[in-house]
Amino acid sequence: MRREGFLAYGARQTIENLHGLQACMATLVADDLQTVERTLDSAHRLQTCLTLFTKGYPTPRVAFWKRRLRRIVRALNALRDCLRLHQWVAAQQPPPAFKAGVQRALLRLRQRAQRCHETLLLAWQRWNCAHLPNEIEGLSRRWIRSFGGEPVDIEHALMQWQSLQREHWAALRSPALSLAIRCGRLRALQEAHDLLTPLKLPLEYSDNLQTHLEILDAQRFHAAALCLLREMLAEERAQTLQYAGSLRGFRRIESGWEWLIEQLVAFLHPSDEPSLPAGSTHTQTKKR
User: Fold this and answer.
1) Residue 270 has pLDDT above 60, yes or no
2) Is residue 165 within 8 Å of residue 202, measured between CB atoms?
3) First and final C-alpha spacing in the chain
4) At residue 176, what are phi and psi to the nearest 5 degrees?
5) pTM score of the predicted model
6) Cys bridge to 150: 5, 107, 168, 240, which one at CB 3.0-4.6 A?
7) Distance of alpha carbon 2 from alpha carbon 195, whole angstroms
8) Cα angle, residue 33 at apex, residues 235 and 96 outer, rounded to 5°
9) Are 49 and 17 in contact (CB under 8 A)?
10) Which CATH architecture has domain 4-267?
11) pLDDT surpasses 60 at 45
12) Over 70: is that where the pLDDT of 130 sits?
C-alpha cells in the first residue's frame, strides 16, 4: 500500500485551499458578514488539509503553520460573531424608552468589530511575513512533481478517513468539550468528507451531521452573543463611572441594553441538541 498518490492529491488540495484563503482575504470587507464567513470557511478548509494530509509535511512545520492559522481563524470567528450580533441588534425595534441603550450597543459593536478586524490583519500580516504560504506551496509542489501522476491508493485513503473519524468522534463524546471546539471538530469531519469526495471512495458518513452542526453552532453563537453583550455592558458602566464620576443618567442606557439581552434570550433560545451520531453509521459517497 503506497501513500504517495494520496499525499500528491492532498498537496493539490492544500495549494488550492491556500490560494482560496489568499483570494478571500484580498476581497474581505471588514463590515460585510458574507465575505467574512466566506474567508472563515476557506481558513477552516486549509486547517483540515493540514490535518488530513499532514504526513506529507515535516511535523514541526505543520504544528507551526497550524498555530499561526489558528490565530487567523480565531480573529475571523470573533469578527463574524460581532457582525452577526450587530446585524441582529440593528434589526430590532425597541420601544422609545430603550432606544438610547440599543443605539449605544450598536456603536460599541461597530467599534468592537473594527478592533477584531485589526487583530485579523495583524495575524494575517504575521502569517505572510513568516513566508508560510510560500513554504506550504513549495513543499506541496514537490509531491505533485514527483507523484502527481500516481493513482490514489484507495485502501490508504480510507484508512486516513477512518483514523480522522475515530479521533474526532472520540473527542466529541467528552462532556467537557466546549461548544466552540465541538463545532470545530464536526466542521472538520464535514470538510474532510468534501476533500475526499472527488476520489469516489466508499466513505462512511452520518446523515444528520449537518443538522447537528447547525444546532450546535446556533447554541455556540447564542452563548457567545449573550456573553459579549453582558461584557460590553459591564465595560460601558465602568467607562461611564471613570469619565463621568457617577452613574447618573446611565440607567437609560442600561435599561435599553438589558432589553436587548432579554430579546436575545427569547429570540435565540438554543434548540435541544440531538444525540450525537454513533460515528459512521452508513456508507455515503454523495456530496452534501
Assistant:
1) no
2) no
3) 29
4) -85, -10
5) 0.90
6) 5
7) 19
8) 50
9) yes
10) Alpha solenoid (1.40)
11) yes
12) yes
